[in-house]
What does this fold into?
Amino acid sequence: MIRVVLPAHLRTLAHVDHEVVLEIVGVITVRAVLDALEARHPALRGTIRHHVTLERRPYLRFFACEEDLSQQSPDTPLPKAVATGAEPLVILGAIAGG
Amino acid sequence: MSGVRVLVGTRKGAFVLTADGMRRRWDVSGPLFAGWEVYHVKGSPADPSRLYASQTSAWFGQIIQRSDDGGGTWHQPGTPAGVPTTTPDGMPKGESNKFVYDTSSEAGKPLTTHQWYDGSQRPWEFKRVWHLEPSPIDPDTVYAGVEDAALFRSSNGGQTWHELAGLRGHGTGPRWQPGAGGMCLHTILLDPSDRARMYVAISAAGAFRSDDGGRAWKPINRGLRSQYIPEPTAEVGHCVHHIAMHRSRPDILFMQKHWDVMRSDDGGESWREVSGNLPSDFGFVIDVHAHEPETIYVVPIKSDSEHFPPDGRLRVYRSRSGGNEWEPLTEGLPQKDCYVNVLRDAMAVDSLDPCGVYFGTTGGQVYASANAGQSWAPVVRDLPAVLSVEVQTLR
It folds into this structure.
């Protein structure tokens, strides 16, 4: 079980109230989580990463276990605590005057 | 019974203002898409219940929203919440927000570059949809003008979008450059008498026309003069702010340019200045009376660095002679200490009689006139900054 915390605006778009819970088989990476998230909630396609290049949108960051994972390769395995569901992957919007 | 529905896009959501044909009492609903910039909301002339909205954010990108019930409920076209990611025939969902420039050889030329503020070349990069223009005859066909400047079309109600790449690929693209608001395609006019003819305008590139349904394009900027570009009468590079036409005379176009109010009587082949006695010929909006094709409206703004009305007085100017001779319309508008702007897509007219005129300000007011501009009253005073105003006349 993988837990994902979305920014408020994306929760509204995806029609979810709290965390999103995903079941993912295989190595748990940011790419695997986003693939599963977008498959469950296609309304989120393009909002977290570019439609075509799949690069992270510049004002969004990925955190887990109090670490900033934004600059890591999306294929880097996530911490074990995320893979086991003990900790969520947090997708966070930058504070940029909004 | 007749009525009007005013669709307002703002910096922090959309609002829908409704009234009966008297246009005295208004209901205000919203915000829709709260917290997001809504650049434009527009209804289909072929089906007034079909609305399209451009919801956008620097954080989360572009979202296209659609309503099939006049704004009561909204969804991303083809992507209701909680459904599988593909249709039974395998069509992927979540495509409605996907605007990808056409780089195929069939489109004429691959993705090239445009000019940046400093004169260097930059590749095209999609940022947002500025304007949505539904087809007058088919609710499922809609055009999108985007930043960086390009024209897209959807033929399936906004589920998927395809670039009409002949515009960007016709050869002048490397000389286009962003205006202060970005390099946006903000005006789309569909000729009601000739389905193959359409016009677009781009800041800062100029006006363009297609006579074959959007495949091939030509610049139509002869007569424009812009002192802020190296060659003032260049074929492209002009910062056109908005263009309007009257549906009964689609060859006559009215333009509010960065500076200068212009007019063309030949489908954009040539332009002449009709600024006349305006207190400033800088501005953003321009529109045409619904029943009088020679009656036009502008809101003069002091200058390109001072984006507020001259003398702190908010005045709509009306010409009943197609330009040159203008009269101020001030009744009901603030005539002192007013320093708001009226952005390019923030004026519209209804088709009731007398014609209703509407505009929104960066101060969050939406003003309405039910008598062709003679007097004005605010429908709302305290919305977020208004980006766009459109009107549907409901009968």
Observations:
- Chain B has a mean pLDDT of 94.
- Residues 3-9+18-394 of chain B form a domain with the Methylamine Dehydrogenase; Chain H fold (CATH 2.130.10.10).
